[in-house]
Amino acid sequence: MSASTIDADHQSLLFTACPWITAAEPVSWEAIVDVPSGVTKWARWRCGKRQTEPPSSTVSFMRTVKFTFLLMGLKHHLPKARNAYNSITILIGLNGFEASSPEDIGNLAVSHFQETLGPTTHTTSPALISQVAALVRTDRNLGLWNQTCTIKLLWLLLFKTESIWVAWIHQNVIKDDSIWQMKPKQQHTWIFKQILAQRQTSIQWVQIDPGNGVDVNFWFDPWTKFGRLIKFLGPMGPRLTGIPLTTAVAELWRDGAWALRSARSHQMEELLIYLTTISLSDSSSFPQWLINGKIQTSFKSTLIYHSLVESPTVPWYPLIWIKRGIPKHKSLAWLMLLNRCPTRDRLLSWGLNTDPLCLLCNQDNESRDHIYFNCSYSSAVWNHFSSRFAINSATNTWDDITNSLQSQSISSKHKYLSILTWQATVYDLWWERNDRLHRGNHRSTDLIIAKISATIKNKISALRPQNNSLASELMQYWFLLFP
Known about the structure:
It holds the Pfam family zf-RVT. By secondary structure, this protein is mostly helical. It has helices at residues 8-17, 56-71, 78-94, 102-117, 127-136, 142-159, 164-174, 190-197, 199-202, 229-232, 237-241, 266-275, 301-309, 317-320, 327-337, 344-349, 368-374, 376-389, 398-406, 412-438, 445-462, 468-481; strands at residues 206-209, 253-254, 257-258, 286-291, 294-296. The protein contains 22 helices and 5 strands.
């Protein structure tokens, strides 16, 4: 194998497989000895042995390497894992390490994966198998471990500039761009796209010391305690502040003071107060890794993992953020579930002088729990749909209905359509309430039911370009329930 036969993809796989390996100077690819064509590139050790057929211990080890890469988020198939394994053995040989067996390679790999996979609990060999077995027998969430490992790769890109893999990524992938401003591209590898996807999660632990502010973007780099200011101030931030998206922090530091407009929002006021504690210097910017407010000099996977575990998914998540839902319906259902909409009981609790009666039935005091679905008007609308979906809640209260929707153990089509209909009902009843309040318009329950039905059918039809068979099945099911 000569330098000309090692393409960019092979090099990318090599450096992805070996992020822990560093070198004072670039690897000399010409030093790799040619492998005869047609011979599978199995481990070639320092002692000069060449094997055309892999021993059983090597096959077993390769399965372990494959599983480890799956845990690390790389998700390569066995052939790619085998190539990565070969690259590891070749690179170890070039750097002068003696590796005469798969167990030796495993011990070197474990030294890197030790922190991620946890301490050794068994003495069987190879050591890497013990690490994987120990992880599998724990109650850890492998999905969160995957996420933790991907965040570690982002950490390496920020703090381990001496790594060959980091240098290669910066030179060939990131180039002159900023890791915080990059957008995923088609030519990016799967693992690099996963790294970019973890930036928003990692913001909570990263803060850039702006230094002189020359190479720090005001909007996109996390140089304040608020993270990325484009998220903190919102998409209208550049217009309200008059600061373009491409502005560097140094451009806003003039004569030893910040040159910013007066605050026009609560968030901007917080930022201006915070900036009084920050001043630029003559040094270059550098990132800091903060855990619980303390600067860390190393990546501690356990701390990151537990930080992710401490934010569990709320139980009502499947009821609100359904796939192929209607965005405005999901948003209002979310606000209603949190009881954050300005119903009249909340307006009265804020000290406002308003009529407490429900705008839909004009019989009882208005509240979220009354509108959904103790109100005679809204219950007539909801009962039309719930009876067909066989949603058997004990009462028509908000809590009973939401619990019944979540506990459905029927087909996915039935559950999807029932939740989609429930969200549409929440939205249209709130729309009717506001229409009566602001415009004095009144519609009968039959018109509301017809509008909800039309909305659901339009949504199903909108799915045809993406998945025609699914749209057909959903439409047939809908007409089966509502002939």
